[in-house]
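does this look right to u?? magnesium ion version
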Amino acid sequence: MKLLEVKDLVKHYGKVKAVDGISFSVQEGSCFGLLGPNGAGKTTTIEIMESIQEPDSGVVYYKGEKITHSFKEKIGIQFQNTSLQEFLSVRETLELFSRLYPKHKPLEEIVRICSLDDIINRDNRKLSGGQRQRMLLGIALINDPDLLFLDEPTTGLDPQARRNFWNLIENIKKENKTILLTTHYMDEAEYLCDDVVIMDHGKIIENGSPKDLLKKHFGEAVVKIPAEAVPEGLNFSCPSEIKDGFTEIQCQNLDQTIQELIHNRIPLNGLMIERKNLDSLFLKLTGMSLE
Ligand SMILES: Nc1ncnc2c1ncn2[C@@H]1O[C@H](COP(=O)(O)OP(=O)(O)OP(=O)(O)O)[C@@H](O)[C@H]1O
Ligand SMILES: [Mg+2]
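got this back:
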């Protein structure tokens, strides 16, 4: 079921068109990724969806109804930048936030889901980047929302801390919550997201599940053979091009492509098989790499 639907959103800041007419929908229980480079319009979009910002035009629907300002009480938000009260421990910070809601998840539950045990008594200013993100995730979960917004939750974390954070997100997914996250880490989106929207300059340039998008743009795999091994003028049944000294075949069926190579007596010694990722897709769509 469609939990959220965004229709024709537009938002300007003065002359800057931050969001330029975008539409998409988010399925209940899914993890949805908004991807794009700095300034693409991700934060603006997510803040409009959280009812924190007003769009110039366009509508956001939650379960088929237009969202209102009270919507933000029902959801959990992890902001890209958050200032926290000073001189408080992690426990005190969580307690402070839980007082803001009439109903909240028991603290022990939050500690368990977000693995906060080891830092619960630490001053919230003395946390590492990864620990801070864990605490912020805990804050976002305090009102036990069905829908969670995470704006670049892993930016700046080292690879291990990012992995740990992914595990937390997976735990939360198991609780059947719907997650909307922004990221410019393509491997993160591929690992966590059921569906993604790729944004650039306020517009959507692609939309779909990572698997479908990769299949659509790159086929099943790319087979690379040293270009000199391929007789000139030979055509394959799948699209091919010569790049950096290799003939690259975008195959839909690996088995068939290999058969074709053998049939044409092309030596397989230098053959390489490449599975493309979302970063390669971003590069293909925009001409630049995100990472
Ligand atoms: N409050 C604001 N006032 C003026 N311009 C803004 C404001 N917020 C964002 N912008 C501009 O709107 C565009 C989109 O910004 P936004 O923060 O939505 O991008 P983003 O995709 O979240 O980027 P990042 O990955 O850096 O967080 C940018 O050009 C930005 O400079
Ligand atoms: Mg942002």
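Residues 159-174 form the longest helix (16 residues). idk if thats expected tbh
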